User: Which sequence fits this backbone?
């Protein structure tokens, strides 16, 4: 595909795209672009938030370029402070390795492994000395670092910033030098760090990487960014059932954002969808996202399950109530379960009622009906809910 | 000597003395204190400014304690920004080693080598990894670093501060951990760095060092601190002649500071000296300081030389002038040098004049008189200065 057309596609859904001209030149020259994405294995799972950047990386792969996935096993020991108001906790090497392993499994649910170079930044940082660190630290000023939005806010609020946090962006930038990346992809909060990479490449006399940032995905609450630490997230390794259910829980406005950033729908497609019933569209979204990770069949199955539970809940909320005396002959102290249910006129025949009891599909309160000969006493029956099959609920007053 | 008496002596001339109580305890417990002084071999020579702290270290030695002299061969690669408004230039390893060598020679003009442990901080920093650096950087906040006076000023003035400069105080502090120092001596501008050492020792679970700072010595200009970069300094390896001459050039007020900080005179002694003639006292100061480095004889010799030159200069400034016609018979186009000089009546006899000429001690302008038969022509002689011996100058008009 010609360079301009590629760039047009790659530009979709980005917030910042810097160095476009240089990229066009490199694509024209026939270069397979090295497209860097770094993830720090700070927790055991990736979220749908990561999916936004992974989707973009996948798009590069589909256009024939080389994904370079950097597992920040070394930088995780510092903790990227980007967009956070407190320093991250320190992880052990074991935790980091465990997390890195699951990250890869999850990343390959979206990326094409054949077109992905996986690197760990301990490869180069593990060999670096104190002197190397000092030379790196020399390449950045305190003032420039304090211009970064989150640092500026923390400094103003007198929230401690450890000096080690000033070194993080330099290390991330150094990754770009080591990997000779042509592009770095990241969330919006990575813009500063990605620009540092550009500077360090320039200082090292190599062509600068383009920088491409994606919007941060909003979480299930529809308010804050999706984050493992806010608990408002869907993990890439959540079960199909949880994935479907969590998507169903988002506000309508958030649903359209997910259609855009997770399913990569165009503005025109989304405009058309807005004419449909929102509940139906949310089910389709949940089904499509579940299908992405667990296959079409799973997507369909989870929708069915969800609808069953939903209908049952609906039935229960709307259930009819009957007075004892309206169902049995006047003055009778007890009645057969079959006669009682037949008197509600909710069943086609006594035969159908007997069949349900025999299948064990009839419940009196919390216990299963014992058999077709079961009788209920008036006093005991008062206030009881009888369920027959999945959707019929009857309350006895 | 008992602990309190030692502390009283050690406190003399200090600006800050922190941790006095702990020191008293350690001395009482019979501990030989480890007294750290760090110097960065950034230039080929030490100055009289260093002498102030070296004198204090020597005082510790004289009381039986252990001097630990740290040659900052590693930290010099960063450059201590203390009290400076711009970052220092980077030195090569070779320059650093060369400087370190001459530093030691100079330091031992003041310190007792037998009671001095010399260490280079490359010993431990040369082995440290990037990860060690990060762990060190974690121990300090940006805000605390920006409280340091010089950083605060530079930040406010928007003068760039490199992040590497924030690491310097941490490295200097780390030296104290490695050396388990009981005391750190430094100039006033080292107070912040020395306190970092105290903190890092505490973090490492060891007893904290006392901190003792000395005033910064004022330079030859009597205004700015003595510094190699201001050019207003006396180097410990200046020649005896330069040393004497430079001391003679300081303003009177500065002379008393030198008596106090370099010769360790008490306020009472200085008060008494102020009754003497300032020129005499300055000669004594210059002589004593020269003697400290080159021996008593050299001190005396330089004073004598100085006085000779000074008298000669005086003689030249006051020299008499004679009209040609007043010295020779009227109308004579030339005259013998001997007759000419005899006519000035500045010499006891013609014999003495001849002796001076024969010794080569008579100069006509810039050239030596050729012999006792020399004659001068009127036209050529006009405006010439004739010097005979060291102190007689005659101008012919």
Assistant:
């Amino acid at each position: 595909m010609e360079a301009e057309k590629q760039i047009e596609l790659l530009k979709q859904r980005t917030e910042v795209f810097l160095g476009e001209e240089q990229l066009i030149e490199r694509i024209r020259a026939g270069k397979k672009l090295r497209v860097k994405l770094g993830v720090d294995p700070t927790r055991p799972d990736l979220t749908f938030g990561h999916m936004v950047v992974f989707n973009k990386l996948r798009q590069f792969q589909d256009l024939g370029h080389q994904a370079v996935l950097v597992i920040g096993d070394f930088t995780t020991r510092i903790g990227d402070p980007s967009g956070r108001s407190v320093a991250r906790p320190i992880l052990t090497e074991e935790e980091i390795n465990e997390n890195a392993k699951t990250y890869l499994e999850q990343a390959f649910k979206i990326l094409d492994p054949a077109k992905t170079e996986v690197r760990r930044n301990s490869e180069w940082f593990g060999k670096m000395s104190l002197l190397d660190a000092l030379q790196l630290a020399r390449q950045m000023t305190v003032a420039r670092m304090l211009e970064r939005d989150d640092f500026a806010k923390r400094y103003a609020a007198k929230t401690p910033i450890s000096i080690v946090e000033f070194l993080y962006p330099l290390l991330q930038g150094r990754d770009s030098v080591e990997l000779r990346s042509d592009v770095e992809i990241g969330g919006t909060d990575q813009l500063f760090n990605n620009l540092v990479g550009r500077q360090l490449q320039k200082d090292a006399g190599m062509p600068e990487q383009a920088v491409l940032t994606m919007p941060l995905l909003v979480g299930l609450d529809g308010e804050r960014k999706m984050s493992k630490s806010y608990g408002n997230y869907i993990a890439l390794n959540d079960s199909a059932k949880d994935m479907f259910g969590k998507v169903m829980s988002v506000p309508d406005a958030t649903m359209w954002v997910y259609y855009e950033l997770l399913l990569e729908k165009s503005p025109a497609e989304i405009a058309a969808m807005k004419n449909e019933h929102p509940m139906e569209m949310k089910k389709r979204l949940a089904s499509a996202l579940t299908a992405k990770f667990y296959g079409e069949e799973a997507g369909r199955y989870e929708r069915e399950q969800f609808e069953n539970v939903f209908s049952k809940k609906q039935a229960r909320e709307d259930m009819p109530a009957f007075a004892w005396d309206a169902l049995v002959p006047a003055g009778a102290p007890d009645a057969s379960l079959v006669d009682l249910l037949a008197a509600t006129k909710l069943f086609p025949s006594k035969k159908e009622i007997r069949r349900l009891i025999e299948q064990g599909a009839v419940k009196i309160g919390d216990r299963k009906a014992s058999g077709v000969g079961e009788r209920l006493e008036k006093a005991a029956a008062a206030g009881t809910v009888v369920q027959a099959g999945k959707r019929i609920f009857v309350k006895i007053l």
